């Protein structure tokens, strides 16, 4: 019997897509029954929906620092889908802080992907999202410097 899995995402869902592809194999031990994101604009939601997987958005911002209330809503969504296992992909666990504050070392490619996403948000004049990304990187001790030649970054 296949285990029922929910995938928690906060962004593009590139790792999620690989898991969805793997789950297509008959011998794969799990069935992906839900994709849950803390951001309505997470591009991974479209990928999941295109694969026929139900998606749910539970925005974390309205909960502010009330993590317990957020977790109640998340738990309800997991129970409604009869989820047995959770796959935490991308940065969902750190963005939502559901597992505490682990020390995370981002790869240079991950940092660049966030910078590219921030630049795209700025191009769309979505300054709130651009600021979120800057703040997220700052929490991970990545400092951004906007210059006339582009964005430079360094680790603190």
Structure, briefly:
The chain is an alpha/beta fold and 156 residues long. Helix content is 42%, strand content 22%.
Summarize the structure in words:
There is one protein chain. The chain is an alpha/beta fold and 156 residues long. It has 2 domains: 3-96, Formyl transferase, N-terminal domain (Rossmann fold); 108-155. It has 6 helices and 6 strands; from the N terminus they run βαβαβαβαααββ. The strands form 2 sheets. A 4-stranded parallel β-sheet has the order 3-2-1-4, covered by helices on one side. A two-stranded antiparallel sheet has the order 5-6. The longest helix has 16 residues, at 108-123.
Continuous helix count: 6
Task: Determine and state the CATH class of the largest domain.
Answer: Alpha Beta
H/E order of the elements? Answer: EHEHEHEHHHEE
Assembly category:
single chain
State the separation between the terminal residues, measured CA to CA: 47 Å
Residue fraction in strands: 15-25%
Largest sheet composition: 4 strands, parallel
């Amino acid at each position: 019997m296949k285990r029922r899995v929910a995938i928690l995402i906060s962004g593009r869902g590139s790792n999620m897509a690989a898991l969805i592809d793997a789950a297509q194999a008959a011998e794969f031990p799990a069935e992906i029954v839900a994709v849950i994101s803390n951001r309505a604009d997470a591009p991974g939601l479209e990928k999941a929906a295109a694969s026929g997987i139900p998606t749910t958005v539970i925005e974390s911002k309205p909960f502010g620092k009330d993590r317990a209330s957020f977790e109640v809503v998340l738990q309800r969504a997991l129970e409604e889908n009869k989820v047995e296992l959770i796959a935490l992909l991308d940065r969902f666990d750190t963005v939502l802080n559901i597992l505490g504050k682990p020390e995370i070392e981002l790869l240079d490619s991950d940092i660049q992907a966030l910078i590219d996403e921030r630049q795209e948000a700025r191009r769309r004049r979505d300054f709130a999202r651009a600021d979120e990304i800057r703040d997220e990187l700052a929490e991970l001790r990545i400092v951004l410097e906007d210059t006339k030649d582009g964005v430079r970054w360094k680790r603190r």
